[in-house]
Design brief:
334 residues, 27% strand, alpha+beta, single chain, nine-stranded mixed beta sheet, binds (R)-mevalonate, 41% helix
């Protein structure tokens, strides 16, 4: 049945273990969260493609694409304009592959999360836009297909990206990702009591991935050993997650943070928040995502409130989250 308007929501993602090393083919564990991105795609008539993006603080951006020319009326936010480029790329990939005329399409992107903080908002925009537009043009895609399109979007826009964020956002739950080998959901029958905090970022994920690459090229043996150690942490974490062993998970998070610091992707303010969270009783705390500021997570069974206060006192903003098991979700209106 053809529809005129589709809304897709896709969750944000926290990285429990393995970010950065996953770009080098090591395994990682990521968890979809119950806050994310909502993309509405509709036929509006006219000759151009319109994309609007806004976040909860009511900043916004609008662009009009006619043929190859893009006109923007930007309400000054570079993070939002990046989101638009992920949406535009998702639309182009889907229409290039399956047909579909992008003229006369209006896209509205809304975020429940801070954009560009390392919570996979770019992956969620890519996934939600691909899912919504595919439904609008009546193409049936599985969540795995959408994850693959999302990954191609990230590769096109950023140059380098692992399939981690787009897989977790599209499929949902706690995901084990070993690029090119295996992507599967881990069954966790217990609560993962996480406190998530974030601060402004100094660098984007793309810039940090490039910096790690420079370090890798300069000290291949040293950095390779770090990547292998992060991979080994992930293997241990899979077992600990299976048993609900919080103490081991916390220790592994702390070791993982040490190795991320060695890769140079934390920063002073973020590391300070991580230490404060541990001091307030978290069993483990680490950055989550690309780093350079951005998001951190703390495993805080029974002491969530205390740890959340410590994160706020150290200058972080706390986001309350739970696991999302659904992944991308599409609703259409005929
Ligand atoms: C970004 O959320 C995580 C990184 O590992 C990059 C990637 O996986 O594409 C830093």
């Amino acid at each position: 049945m053809s529809v005129l308007k589709v809304t897709a929501t896709a969750p944000g993602v926290v990285k429990l273990f393995g970010e950065h090393a996953v770009v080098y083919g090591k395994p990682a564990i990521a968890m979809a969260i119950n806050k994310g991105i909502r993309v509405t795609v509709e036929e509006s008539g006219g000759n151009s493609l319109m994309i609007f993006a806004k976040d909860l603080e009511v900043k916004g951006i609008a662009i009009r694409v006619t043929g190859d020319s893009i006109e923007g009326s930007v309400i000054n936010d570079s993070q939002l304009s990046k989101l638009v480029s992920y949406a535009l790329t998702a639309l182009r990939i889907i229409s290039g592959k399956y047909g579909g005329d992008l003229r006369g399409i209006r896209v509205i992107i809304e975020s429940q999360l801070p954009i560009g903080a390392g919570l996979a908002t770019s992956a969620a925009v890519s996934v939600a836009t691909a899912a919504a537009y595919a439904r609008l043009i009546n193409v049936k895609l599985s969540k795995e297909d959408i994850a693959k399109v999302g990954h191609s979007v990230e590769l096109t826009v950023q140059g380098a990206a692992s399939p981690m964020d787009t897989a977790a956002s599209s499929i949902g739950g706690v995901m084990y990702i070993k690029p090119g080998v295996e992507i599967k959901r881990l069954s966790t029958s217990f609560k993962i009591p996480l406190v998530v905090g974030y601060i402004e970022r100094e660098l984007t994920t793309g810039e940090l991935v490039r910096r790690v690459k420079v370090l890798y090229n300069k000290y291949p043996k040293v950095i390779d050993d770090i990547m292998n150690s992060i991979g080994a942490i992930v293997d241990e974490a899979v077992t600990a997650l299976g048993k609900g062993d919080y103490v081991t998970l916390g220790e592994l998070m702390n070791i993982n943070q040490g190795l991320l610091e060695a890769l140079g992707v934390s920063n002073h303010r973020l590391s300070n928040i991580i230490y404060m969270a541990r001091r307030a009783g978290a069993l483990g705390a680490k950055l989550s995502g690309g780093g350079g500021g951005g998001a951190m997570i703390a495993l805080a069974p029974g002491v969530e409130d205390k740890v959340a206060v410590a994160v706020e006192l150290a200058g972080g903003e706390v986001i309350l989250i739970d696991v999302d098991y659904e992944g991308v979700h599409v609703e259409d209106y005929s």
